[in-house]
Amino acid sequence: MYGSVPLIVRLLASSVSVANRAGKIVRDVMSKGELGIVEKGKDDYQTEADRSAQRCIVASLAAQYPNLKIIGEEDSLEDEGEVVSDWLVNEIDKEILKLQCPPNLQEVKEEDIVVWVDPLDGTSEYTQGFLEHVTVLIGIAVNETPVAGVIHQPYYKNIVEGDKKIGRTIWGLHGVGVGGFTPAPPPESIVITTTRSHSNPVEAEEALKVMNASKVLRVGGAGYKVLQLLEGNASIYVFASPGCKKWDTCAPEAILSAAGGKLTDILGNFYKYGANVTKPNKTGVLAAVNNELHSYALERIPEKLQETLANK
Ligand SMILES: Nc1ncnc2c1ncn2[C@@H]1O[C@H](COP(=O)(O)O)[C@@H](O)[C@H]1OP(=O)(O)O
Ligand SMILES: [Mg+2]
Ligand SMILES: [Mg+2]
Ligand SMILES: [Mg+2]
């Protein structure tokens, strides 16, 4: 079915449906109240929601697209076999299927794609009750570049046709644009968004000071921070330290760039998202909704800080 629709569009449409299901899993685990927190490392936690949402996403996509390379944050789960049948999603979002695939992506094959999955971005915030910061991220990279992606917000409250609804799904596709929300222009004065739970070392705080910002918005998750840019609440996303990984930035970068923005490291270089790259984004994150704001930020980052991160 839908075989005539180019693969990249089908995969994005499946990712939207799968992310919605994963978001419900995230809510269900929280309402049951048994988070099953495991400490993976310093300031690095995993909950039952991270584990179950990962299983749902990976199993659902692998069943439909068997030759796809899928890399998930929680890949090292020991009991990978345990997937509840109710988690296997084969629905496909009909609205996304209608998108006109840009010519340069029409011939993309499963072998050219790496899907980067962050089943729950903002785990610290999830465990601390900052639920609106939590997102589910599915990023689609073709030949190392993020070209499509989904950011799902399980706790976003909206009213659709008079009814209260929970959750929304933002998508982006290069050459087509973005959807699932209303983009807004950046704020009049510079507003920075940065981490709230992974403390910036002193030299990284320096990167915030030099931006001359009127406000610093400290929120959790890479997905939620990029949404702050897209919705006009912040101008620049600065994280001048290691800690983020490819699954944190792939979907946000795809959507931001589909909207005309830019996400790079602190040196201004793009990350690569091929199957064999190292997972950590060791040289930080610098992102903005347009090239002008990105250049404004990049020019101000102290060279010494760039050197420190590059040599880590
Ligand atoms: N030191 C770190 N250790 C583990 N994950 C990190 C670290 N720093 C950032 N991250 C990941 O990047 C996301 C964005 O970081 P921050 O909110 O600090 O700006 C975090 O939600 C977390 O993703 P996750 O919650 O999926 O583990
Ligand atoms: Mg994590
Ligand atoms: Mg994450
Ligand atoms: Mg995560």
From TrEMBL:
Q: Name one GO molecular function term.
A: inositol-1,4-bisphosphate 1-phosphatase activity
- Highest taxon above the source species: Eukaryota
Please list the cofactors this protein needs: Mg(2+)
| InterPro entries per UniProt | CysQ/Inositol_MonoPase (IPR050725), Inositol_monoP_metal-BS (IPR020583), Inositol_monophosphatase-like (IPR000760), Inositol_monophosphatase_CS (IPR020550)
Keywords on this record? Answer: Hydrolase, Lithium, Magnesium, Metal-binding
Q: Which SUPFAM superfamilies match?
A: Carbohydrate phosphatase
Residues recorded as binding Mg(2+), renumbered to this chain, are: E73, D118, L120, D121, D248
EC number of this enzyme: 3.1.3.57, 3.1.3.7
Similarity section: Belongs to the inositol monophosphatase superfamily.
Protein known as: 3'(2'),5'-bisphosphate nucleotidase 1
Q: What is the lineage of its organism?
A: Eukaryota, Metazoa, Ecdysozoa, Arthropoda, Hexapoda
